[in-house]
Amino acid sequence: MSDRFAKLKYSALRQMTIARLREFSREPAAIFWVYVFPILMMIALGVAFRNRPLEQLTVVVESGDRAEPTLQWLDADERFRVSIATAEDAHERLRTGKADLIVTPEESGSNDYRYTFDPTRPGSLLARNATDDALQRAAGREDLLVVADREVSEPGARYIDFLVPGLIGMGIMGGGLWGVGFAIVDMRIRKLLKRFLATPMNRSHFLVAVMISRLIYTIPEIVLLLICARFIFGVINQGSYLTVTVLILLGTIEFSGIGLLVASRAKTLETISGLLNLVMLPMWMASGIFFSYDRFPEYFQPLIRILPLTPLIDALRQTMLEGQTIADLGSQLVVMAVWAILTFFIGLRFFRWN
Amino acid sequence: MAHDPIRDETSTIRFMSKPVISCRDLRKTYVGKPPIEALRGIDLTVEEGECFGVLGPNGAGKTTAIEILEGLLPATSGDVQILGKRWHEEADQIRQRIGISLQETQLSEKLTVRETVTLFRSFYREGMTPDEAIACVSLEKKADVWVKKLSGGQKQRLAIATALVGEPQVLFLDEPTTGLDPQSRRDLWQLIMDSRSQGRSVLLTTHYMDEAERLCDRIAIIDGGKVRAQGSPEELIAGLGGEHVIRFTLESQSNDALPDHFWRSLEGVREASFKAGDYQLTVAQPHRVIPHLLHSLDSAGQRASSLTTRQASLEDVFVKVAGRTLEEAEGEAT
Ligand SMILES: Nc1ncnc2c1ncn2[C@@H]1O[C@H](COP(=O)(O)OP(=O)(O)OP(=O)(O)O)[C@@H](O)[C@H]1O
Ligand SMILES: [Mg+2]
């Protein structure tokens, strides 16, 4: 065996990485959580929030003399599901969300109506306007302008298009934190870290190998997700795949670093699980995985933007949905790099081997 | 006893080389409430090529001591030298040349034996091939089997293979045979003796007397964080003043049947102890003492209901230096 061959064969970094990959690939449960679960989640959410062709509006007409003709006017429009009910019954239905709007014909002798609805509910507001429109026309109103509707539901503007980058970000976060954090604490509990410490192994090589192995199995995870998104929902990437790859790599390094830091002292699996959930919770809620974080109050926005996950998801969306390039993503890349470097070195500093 | 100058002299003469392991006045106090003084001043010297055993009951401080020597645990005070080097100066050089098996390590279950040994090989600059290390511990047939599927004894042999693969000069083994069946223990003894005959020095801890006696060139008995006796098994047993133990019980079963002057009149008895109706005498020449003993008992109006003799063992040494049997000491710890 030549010297160089021996050196390569027994490179600790290489062996350590291979060992981690082998262990991972022999763990069916890990494979499921990493590769299958994100895809199932995408399918479930994609189906649940798919754009429905026609939204039905539930309208209740309060019983009385004019209830019947009103019902017939509205029934002509297929958007409405109309029924007649007593005042009491109608209010009960509105209160419990079974109706979007109550239409009350005013006292006999008048042609007027009263609408009762909850303005905070989008469906209610929609029902009020559509109903008003229909009743006004039935009463003889002429439209003054000619309008044409064009409905847009193109790839790139649907919820599923918004969701996929969020799921990729979530996968990278979960994979980095659990994959690194949990693995390290598990090895600490088994005294394997201590056993490694008893050898001349280079300690930062060990941590780097844990990260590299994480990177190696994150890439197929994302590729698989993108392929499924493409073939099931027609999700396409408007930007370059190189940019997406860079973001995935940086994101994985970032969350591996955080995982390392969180795991640097933890001694039990309970501790590490608790800590990881605690770390992930704000990002689950605020980083815009499922919904835009614009809905949070203004003064939270700067804080949300420096959470580790936010820049990753934002950058992925800007790339995949808007076709932006690396050059446009400077601020996000900086935030991620700072997290990555800071947590890795602090983690290394505090790391407890036994 | 432990610091008999003549005996220390003989060991230096016997080896005439620099010690591979030495520590002076090693102390370790675990901080906490209350603080635990695990080591209270330990001196050990392991010479090149010898197998040295640290023998003691549960909680004696064996693991604490060996882990400090291995550079895994900081001592509270004291000086440690491994192969003439100190941990805080040349840790990497020391690590390249020692091999370790911890008391409790769970190697990755889903790696095979060969993969595990190869991984450990990659940490060392020089060493044997993984297959050579596997052959050293006779695990060739299991080379491609997952660690999960190994028996306790096979796991322990694998642990030793990971320690051997860097071709260490010194081997540290913390309780390598605890919890193993008799056959596995004997296999492991053979393995350790092989390593030693290849010129490696071995430091092992154990709480089995027979293991220390069979395997070790020299032994330190530690109890309560102190070295109570140190020397070769033969020296330690000879240190009792006699190699035989006579044990007898009296028909009367009375506790104070034998007055002081009874013992004084008995010649050739080095040590006498009494517990729960059981008398034990340490003697060099039982064939001389027994007739005397029976005669004296007769004169004292007593009759022996049973009398046995046996070779003195390390067990007796432990009783002498620790004031109780090893079994009793183990009982206290739990
Ligand atoms: N990390 C620790 N923190 C506090 N006390 C400890 C710690 N490790 C060991 N001790 C205490 O120090 C004493 C010596 O322990 P040690 O593990 O060295 O004993 P041992 O001789 O190896 O025992 P065993 O045969 O059970 O392995 C014990 O009283 C133990 O409770
Ligand atoms: Mg121990």
Blueprint of the fold:
The complex is a heterodimer of chains A (354) and B (334).
Chain A: H1 3-9, H2 12-25, H3 28-48, E1 57-62, H4 67-75, E2 80-85, H5 87-95, E3 101-105, E4 113-116, H6 122-138, H7 159-189, H8 192-197, H9 203-233, H10 241-263, H11 269-286, H12 301-305, H13 309-322, H14 330-350
Parallel strand pairs in A: 1-2, 1-3
Antiparallel strand pairs in A: 3-4
Chain B: H1 5-15, E1 19-30, E2 36-47, E3 51-55, H2 62-69, E4 77-82, H3 87-97, E5 98-101, H4 113-121, H5 130-136, H6 152-164, E6 170-174, H7 182-197, E7 201-206, H8 209-215, E8 218-223, E9 226-231, H9 233-238, E10 244-250, H10 260-264, E11 269-275, E12 278-283, H11 286-299, E13 304-311, H12 314-322, H13 326-333
Parallel strand pairs in B: 3-7, 3-8, 5-6, 6-7
Antiparallel strand pairs in B: 1-2, 1-4, 8-9, 10-12, 10-13, 11-12
Helix pairs in contact in B: 4-5, 4-6, 5-6, 6-7
The complex binds adenosine-5'-triphosphate and magnesium ion.
Adenosine-5'-triphosphate (ATP) is lined by residues 30, 32, 36, 38, 56, 58-64, 103, 207 of chain B.
